[in-house]
Amino acid sequence: LHDGGFTDPTDDNEPMPPTWHNWMENTEVYKITVDMKYSDIEVPTIDNIRNAELIGMILLNERNVLCVGPTGTGKTLTVIGKLSRNMHKKFICDFINFSARTTANQTQDLIDSKLDRRRKGVFGPPVLKRQVFFIDDFNMPALEVYGAQPPIELIRQWMDFHGWYDRRNIGEFRTIIDINFAAAMGPPGGGRNPVTPRLLRHFHYLAFTELEDISKVKIFGTILKFWVDRTPTLSEFYEPVLFSTFEVYATILKELLPTPAKTHYTFNLRDLSKVFQGVLMKNPEVTENLDEMLRLWYHECCRVFQDRLVNDQDREWFDTLLRHIINKRFPVDSKEALGEDAILYGDFLDPTTDFRQYVQITDMEKLSNVLDHYLTEYNGQSTRPMKLVLFLDAISHVCRISRVIRQPMGNALLLGMGGS
């Protein structure tokens, strides 16, 4: 809401009446280019434009802001985007990550190292500048023996007394001026602790809620459309693929709940995003028929969701779900489209080229020979050679791991019994 008092007066010197503006009013159409990294794609939606503006307003008024919300709602992305690109040039921004092992001394040394001495006992950023510290995973530090979190108590001490004691010159109080904090945290639970209200009272809260469907469609629709539009003949299947993925994700959230035997059955928007990231790894210009596209989509859903499942019963349930969705939303029969064999993708079939295409692997014999070639090469260079016999399961695991490693920020956690 633009208030009348701050705008130019009209002809008869009366202030302008207040008017409402939509957040999306001046946003340009977002263009994705071929050389962009997937992790750098940031599609503007009403949620992140609004939150970024509010964060800017709060910091401009020299207050502290705390972003709260579940994983995958874009807290860190929004704050870092705002602080690194769209703030007034008097703001200097630094980023700090809290973990369970962060200590108060580390935090104190880190913050002190960013500040200059202004006069005796007073520290701050360079004159006329204002320092903003962004702390991610604010509530991660472990509780000490009496239930407090020392790094958080340190920040609380600054909030209450505008400084802390110097650890080298005992008894000397360092007053710290011209700084503010922005913090992001998930709701307490699962390694995250509740934060003391004595600190929270100093913050303005911004709640980041689970993305609404309209925002999901906008974000992933933009990304998928960019890929589908570059295929020769498949642009009409953009919507079925998009909504099929949402349906898979929604069904999994509802059906596969964590139990003591399956504690890692926790899915969030990052998993949904990984499916689209996987599809984007294949060159669309050589994807000519629908069957090929469905095999790619099926493979990426399996890699993201099915690889996390612990028993055959769950894996078969998931396979049936995917086939059911393909039959329902596409004009093909899932049996014919997917074929009977295991679907594997990889980019390592041709060891001689530098430019590696992510393609479906159909020739199992060639795959086996290529992996043996890599193994011999490794054993020739290594002081501790590995004597491996690569059977089909091992080969498919190698393909899965190589797929994760070729993604930027792709990390894998291998779960299994010893010796497997």
How would you describe what is shown here?
The chain is α/β, with parallel strands linked by helices and 420 residues long. 40% of the residues lie in helices and 12% in strands. It contains 13 helices and eleven strands. It has helices at residues 46-60, 75-85, 104-113, 150-161, 197-200, 213-228, 238-255, 269-280, 290-304, 312-329, 334-338, 364-381, 392-405; strands spanning 64-68, 91-97, 116-119, 122-124, 130-136, 163-165, 173-176, 179-185, 203-207, 344-346, 359-361. Strands 2-5-8-1-9 form a five-stranded parallel β-sheet, with helices on one face. A four-stranded mixed β-sheet has the order 3-4-7-6. Helix 1 (46-60) crosses helix 2 (75-85), helix 6 (213-228) crosses helix 7 and helix 6 runs parallel beside helix 8 (269-280). The longest helix has 18 residues, at 238-255. It is globular and about 75 Å long. The mean pLDDT is 88. Residues 1-20 are annotated as: Disordered. This is Dynein heavy chain. It comes from Ignelater luminosus. One of its GO terms (biological process) is microtubule-based movement. Residues 250-330 form the Dynein heavy chain 3 AAA+ lid domain.
